[in-house]
Design goal:
- The protein contains 3 helices and 21 strands.
- By secondary structure, it is mostly beta strands.
- The chain has 2 domains: 63 residues, SH3 type barrels, CATH 2.30.30.100; 178 residues, monomeric porin ompg (Porin, Beta Barrel).
- The chain is elongated and about 70 Å long.
- Keywords: Signal.
Length: 290
């Protein structure tokens, strides 16, 4: 009886090992990115993990082992982000075009700093996956003693796989006597994904507690044409005895945590009276958090 028990135990152990081996062979390989404490970044196929560290099969150096004591963080890459074998990192600035918002929010714990024309500064933080709070200030007015500041809360939610919607407020004020501020309350709908999308926004402006009777309309879009490049357009239609339009077109240059927008603002008046190609626009965004 003892012999039979020992034989069954041995057979069970062997079968378990074979099952684990088969599962390891049939499970799809995972691609990992590992960042070390000294700032180095390694990407490769995950081979396993032990007391010695994380084992990766890389294209340039073959199989490597990264000691756990040297690992700052790591993440598993989404296979859907690989195109022709090349990893396309997620668009780090999908929540905004040049200035106007999309119906995507920062995820909880994410944040970014945006600088426009070197003088307009804004900070945004993802309180939840759907609610983002932002604030900022204009630099020159701060030194002049009449600082201009603004806040930009936004709430978004998914409607379906390709549709998202949201609402928010842009409120600005300055330390000026007898001025109670201005802003716009808006609703937005975005179609597409974080790389390729179009957004329609409608809002009502207000100045000194007086609300406009006609809506401001915004139509913006983004098209990622390369791993590090996207096309961006943002277009405003403002009621002014009819609608007065200002449109833009430009490029977004992307890294994993930074974007730089270079665009031109234009309309018939600007083209004929200022410069045909439009007024240059420049900003950069640095992302923090997750």
């Amino acid at each position: 009886m003892l012999c039979i028990t020992l034989w069954l135990s041995s057979a069970t152990a062997v079968l378990a090992q074979q099952t684990d081996s088969i599962q390891a062979q049939t499970s799809p390989p995972q691609r990992w990115i590992v960042e070390t404490n000294d700032g180095s970044v390694f990407q490769g196929t995950y081979l396993g993990q032990s007391e010695a560290g994380i084992r990766l099969l890389t294209e340039s150096a073959g199989e490597i082992t990264i000691p756990m004591s040297a690992v700052k963080n790591f993440r598993i890459l989404d296979e859907r982000n690989f195109r022709n074998g090349v990893y396309w990192f997620e668009n780090p600035n999908a929540t905004r075009y040049l200035f106007s918002p999309s119906a995507y929010s920062l995820r909880k714990g994410e944040a970014y700093y945006q600088n426009t024309y070197l003088v307009l500064n804004s900070f945004n933080y993802g309180v939840t996956d759907r609610f983002t709070i932002g604030a900022g200030f204009e630099l020159i007015s701060t030194f002049s003693g009449e600082p201009i500041f603004f806040i930009t809360p936004k709430y978004t939610f998914p409607i379906s796989e390709n549709w998202n919607a949201g609402a928010g407020v842009l409120y600005a004020n300055a330390a000026i006597e007898d001025f109670s501020g201005l802003g716009i309350g808006y609703g937005i709908v975005t179609y597409g994904n974080r790389d390729n999308n179009v957004t329609l926004g409608v809002g009502f402006g207000y100045v000194d507690d007086e609300v406009s009777g006609e809506p401001v309309i915004n139509l913006s879009g983004m098209k990622r044409v390369g791993r590090k490049v996207a096309l961006v357009t943002e277009n405003w239609f403002v009621p002014a005895g009819g609608y007065y339009g200002v449109y833009s077109y430009g490029l977004r240059f992307m890294g994993e945590r930074i974007t730089v927008d270079f665009a031109f603002l234009n309309n018939p008046d600007i083209a004929s009276e200022v410069v045909f190609i439009g007024v240059p626009y420049l900003d950069f965004v640095v992302k923090f958090g997750k």
